[in-house]
Structure formats: C-alpha cells, structure tokens
Amino acid sequence: MLATIIHGEKDIRLEEVPNPVLSSGGDAIVKVVAACVCGSDLWPYRGITPTDSPKRIGHEFVGIVESVGPDVSTVKPGDFVIAPFYDCDMTCANCLNGVSTSCLHGGWWGSDDRLGGFADGAQGERVRVPHADGSLVATPGQPEAELVPSLLTLADVMGTGHHAAVSAGVTAGSTVVVVGDGAVGLCGVLAAKRLGATRIVAMSRHADRQALALEFGATDIVEERGAEGIARIKELFDGIGPDCVLECVGTTESMDQALRSVRPGGMVGYVGVPNGGAELPIGFMFSNNVGANGGVAPVRNYIEELLPEVLSGAINPGRVFDLELPLAEVAEAYAAMDERRAIKVLLRP
Amino acid sequence: MLATIIHGEKDIRLEEVPNPVLSSGGDAIVKVVAACVCGSDLWPYRGITPTDSPKRIGHEFVGIVESVGPDVSTVKPGDFVIAPFYDCDMTCANCLNGVSTSCLHGGWWGSDDRLGGFADGAQGERVRVPHADGSLVATPGQPEAELVPSLLTLADVMGTGHHAAVSAGVTAGSTVVVVGDGAVGLCGVLAAKRLGATRIVAMSRHADRQALALEFGATDIVEERGAEGIARIKELFDGIGPDCVLECVGTTESMDQALRSVRPGGMVGYVGVPNGGAELPIGFMFSNNVGANGGVAPVRNYIEELLPEVLSGAINPGRVFDLELPLAEVAEAYAAMDERRAIKVLLRP
After folding, report:
1. Is B268 helix (H, G, I), strand (E, B) or coil?
2. Which of A176, A180, A330, B22 could lock onto A248 through a cystine, CB 3.0 to 4.6 A?
3. What is the spatial distance between Cα A76 and Cα A28, in angstroms, rounded to a whole number?
4. Domains of chain B and CATH, by start
5. What DSSP designation does B144 have?
C-alpha cells in the first residue's frame, strides 16, 4: 500500500510499504477514509525536530474497519471508525481516570506500540490499530460524506481544543482568551463556546482565521501580541484579565502571553506541545495564583461526549479544513500548511 | 507599645515602638490577643532572605478592636476579630473573584500598605488594620479562651492548608498526598479530610507530627523522601499515584516530590512559598497531564466557610500550636521553631 514517509527537512514522500497485518488478537486493520496533517507534523518537516532516518508519519484518521483479531468485540469489518492520535486500551487505571494518553499499554502511530509491534502512521492507505476495542469508536451507521471532516477532528484537534478548555476550567459564564489561531486554537474557541463561555477573545492576525473564530463563537479579536497583547487583554477584562486562557501553540512566547493575560486566580489550559525550552515561572504563578493545567490531550476520552454533536450538526469543527488534497499530493499538503496557505489540510487516500 | 523587630539573622528583639493611630477613615486599631510565628518568618530569621535594616515582623493575629475610623461599619470596638495575613478591601474585582491576596488596594503587615501608610507587624501589642471592613471578620460574641488557637489558624495556616486542598481539586472520594509536615501541611491534611478525601497520606519523619496528622485524618504515613518517597507513594496508589498532591513546603525538592508523585491527570495544589529557584518542568507536566495550581493563599475568602466549624469544634486546627509563650519570649519562640522543637508557637502579648 501507499504511505507517507518523512525523510528529512521538507522531504515528504508517498511510498510503497507492506500492507499491515493483524499481529495481536486485539488488533484491527482500518482502511483510511480521511487523514490530515497536524501542526505538530511541521516540527520535523521544518527540521526543528531532526529526522535521523526515514519514518512513517501522520496520526489523525477516520476509516472503515477491514478486519479484526479474534479478541475484538466493539468494532467489526465495515464499521466507520474514529481513531484518536494514539492507541489505548480504555481499561487501565489511567484510561479510566480520563487520561488515555497515559494508557499503560498504549502507543503512538508511526512507531512501535508499547507492546513492541509497529503501528502504521496515519497518512497512508491502511493502519494497524492495536487495542482496537479501546482505541476505536464506531459511528452509528455510515456517516454522510459531509460529516467526515468534522468526524476527523475528533481524532485530534477538536478533542485537543476541548481539552484546553476543560483544563482551563471553562464553564457557564466563563471569560476566555484563546492564544493560537491554528486548528486547535479555533477548536478551542468552539469548545469554550459549547461549554458556556460568555466572552471569548481569539488572538489572531489572519483574516481567514479571525472569520472562522467568529463563526465558532469568538466575541472579540485581538491582533496584538507580547506586552501589547497582554495590555489589550487586561483592558478588555476590567484591567485584571479573563478567568481562563487556552494556550494552543507551545512556544515560550505563547505560554508567557497566556500566563500573564489570565486574571489572578485564573487558569491556563495548555495543549501546545512545549517547544520553547522555558519552564513555567513558579514565582509569578505563586504570587498571582495563576494555575497551569493540561498536556497531551486524551481525545479518546472525549469522543463519546463530542460525537453526538458532530452527528447532529450542532458543532461543525471540520470547518478548520480549508484545503482538501488526494494522498498523492501529501507533500503539497505539508507545504501549504508550512507556508500558512492553509489552516489544516485533509487528505484522502 | 511593644513589638517584635528583626535585626538580622537570628536576631529577634522585642522593642518599644509608637502606638499605631487611625490614619484613614477605613482603619481599625486592634489589640492583639494572640499572634504566632510562621514558617515563612524563618526565612529572614535564618538569613536566607537577608534583612537589610531592622523591620517589624509577624503577620498572623486575632484580637479585640479598640477603635475604628468613621468609614468602618462591619466591626466595632470590643469585637473579637480574625485578620488574614494581609489586608484587603473585599470589594475589588480580585477580592470578589476569591483572590483577596491580589486585592487591588491591599497590603502586607509590617510594611507600607498599598495606600502608602505603614501597617504594623502582628507580633506586637497592637496593629493598625487598613480596610478594616474587608480585612477583619468578627466572631459572634466573645469566643471561649480554648478556641483562640484555632481561630488564630484562620489568619494563615488553616486557610493556607485549605487553599492547597481546594487548588488541588480535593473533593469527596479524592486520594491525597500531603508533602510537608509543618503547620500548613498538617492543616492541609485536615482540609482534605473535611473536603471528603477518602485516603490521605502524610509525608513526615517526625513522630509528633505523624501523630497529629493521624488525628487530623491521615490514613497513611510515608517517611521516605525523594525517589524512594515517590516509589512508595506510587506503590500505595495502584502504581499510578494519588489524584491530588498538596505541596506545603516550597523547595525545589518538595515540588519535585509533589509533581512526580501525583497520577497522570492529577493536580498539585501548592502553597509553599517558592524558595528553591527551580521553575516548573513543563515537559514532564505536559506529557503526564499533571497540573499545578495554587499560590499565596487568599485566606480571607475562606474565613466565612471555616469559622463555623471552628466555633462548633467540628475542626480543631489550633492543635498545631504545641508551644505557647508570652510575647516577651518571642526570641525563644523563633528558636524553638527554627530548631524544630515546636511545630508552631503561639504568642500572647
């Protein structure tokens, strides 16, 4: 089958690889219907995370189950399924605590799973899914084609934006600022809205992203950054700041923006993969009672909550996909995201 | 009147100072009934925080109102009052948000308040209290003498232990570890118990503190520290750790102990004044979804919740005072705490 391999900086190739096979009783083989490129895929693409040897890439997909091992009971061939950006058993203590990203037996796509077998990257035609009973969620029946993009966001960005909002403690009546206007930040706006936030500021300098933020429920847009951005945010919230800030980037600057924007006693929910090198400033946080909560989002735990709203059309997070390409053009998909010509690119094998 | 002055490392003196006078319409003058020495007073006592010139010290007291300015309406001469370890107006946006330590107009005992006037330190005979309507809480009638120690803990350590528990998200059924067996840590045990925690581990190596922790509701004692301490805690909680850890010390080692003991998805509530120099390790926290929340405890916001239980005897946090001395022996009070001969010393002018 065909799958995407990253060879190095800005070197993305679609290549022939062996078809995956069922290698444990709990596996499923899923034929990919739609995959996509993640902001975090751009770190190796840009060479910031070095790629020592060619490797499979991609971790977001939805698809149709082709076959399952003898121990699989919750999904069957023909089911349309959503996979989180990792595999997990949903039976260990961490999964049951709502933190399936810390599954004691799980793993990451495109690498050996924690049982030692290779699980395919998602930017390909098929994926071997370990712990299929835990990892996969089947939709009731076959979804309408126009729902596929929104269903695909449950694999990562919508669940991740939701995690930022939940981690920041967003609830009915909260005031919220979202740092980051990528797909996750925009989904954070949508998540804050559905959790009942009454005022949501999206920090963005791009007209197309600002428009989508407003469509998703943002009430204000702030274009300033750094000290000016913090001052503008404070000004919008009685001089003290909002209850919650969603940090959806992962740089030192964006985290600083988040921590210094939130009001005393407020909470920063962060989901941006930390890439800045700076630790969290405990002295500032202590003096101002500013908390930090979040991490790698346990999106699998959120699928049951979010899926009905996607199916009913109550939320439409798939709007973050502003470019759709065949898998054959995966290199162009990376380039479009890298050059900010697209917010997020959907790939169809 | 007499008041305590710190002159430098291990140099505590009781000296004659001018009586305080009402200097704003919102002031009260309070005659101190009981004060105490705080763990944080030991930082300058030990010379870790340098004392450049002699200064007033002490920030925890209860007393009787002697006089009030014309704008004061909630307390009157003769009232028995509890003061938090700072002054605050309880009307600004931060106070109303529950974060009176970030009062826009408040200040700290023993220094100029944020209006520019000097507010006395608490280890003396009288204190000028700015924003008396906000800062002070009067008890209904005159409390029984035996309640005074527990009422005094509402000025700091009980409210601070409670803040650690609230910040860590302790609720009915939570599993909790408390790092630190000083008065705040012990009050953290008591706070976790009253919030409904079902299992509470106190980390302590001192028999007297272990005994009090057990009296306050601890279910387990762990004497190990560092890597052994973390391993022992993990072992006690299914190999993954407790839901909540209360960090009540403030060193790099104690925070590390807390962050690496809590389970994935858990929360560290921290109230130890950060003195270690290390920032919070965002990479570890992100990977494990470990949050950190807390800071300088807004104890004034908690007095209304905790006071009825102190008055009824439902909780008896005053048990942390294991030595009582006249104010004249304040230097011995510091020495006893410094040498760990006492958990916490109560002073009576």
Report:
1. strand
2. A180
3. 9
4. 2-156+298-348 (3.90.180.10), 157-294 (3.40.50.720)
5. P
Mutate to test the interface with B, among A91, A94, A271 (most CBs of B within 10 A): A94
Q: CA-to-CA distance for B160 and B154, rounded, in angstroms?
A: 8
Closest to B166 (Cα-Cα) out of B152, B183, B187, B147: B187
pLDDT-derived band of residue B226, with 50, 70 and 90 as boundaries?
Answer: very high
pLDDT of residue B116: 67
Q: What is the helix (H) or strand (E) element at residue B13, kind and residue range?
A: strand B11-16
pLDDT of residue B278: 87
In contact, A143 and A307? CB cutoff 8 Å: no
Query: How many angstroms separate the CA of residue B173 from the nearest CA in chain A?
Result: 13
Distance of residue B308 Cα from the nearest chain A Cα, in angstroms: 25
* A16 vs B: CB within 8 A: no
Contact A151, A64 (CB under 8 A): no
Catalogue the E-assigned strands of chain A. 2-8, 11-16, 28-36, 55-56, 61-68, 80-83, 86-87, 107-108, 111-112, 118-119, 126-129, 137-138, 175-179, 199-203, 220-222, 244-247, 267-270, 291-294, 323-326, 345-348
The CA distance from A110 to A40, in Å, is 14
Q: How far is CA B33 from the centre of its chain?
A: 18
| CA angle at A156 for the pair A153 and A160, rounded to the nearest 5° | 110
- Identify all chain A residues contacting B273, using CB atoms and an 8 Å cutoff: 286
Q: How far apart are CA A336 and CA B313, in angstroms?
A: 67
For residues B177-181, give the mean pLDDT.
97
- Element of type H or E holding A152: helix A148-153
Higher pLDDT, A264 or B273: A264
3-state secondary structure of A172: coil
For chain A positions 231-260, those within 8 Å of chain B (CB to CB) are: 238-240, 255
Q: Within an 8 Å CB–CB cutoff, is residue A294 touching chain B?
A: yes
Mean pLDDT value across residues A262-266: 98
How far is A234 from A246, CA to CA, in rounded Å?
15
Find, among B339, B188, B214, the residue nearest to B269 by Cα: B188
Residue pointed to by tokens 């003195």? B275
pLDDT digits (tens, 9 = 90+) for A289-321: 999 999 999 999 999 999 999 999 999 999 999
Tell me the C-alpha distance between B239 and A209, whole Å.
44
Residue A279 to residue B274, Cβ atoms within 8 A:
no
In whole angstroms, what is the distance from residue A291 CA to residue A302 CA?
23
Q: Which residue has the tokens 């925690």?
A: B197
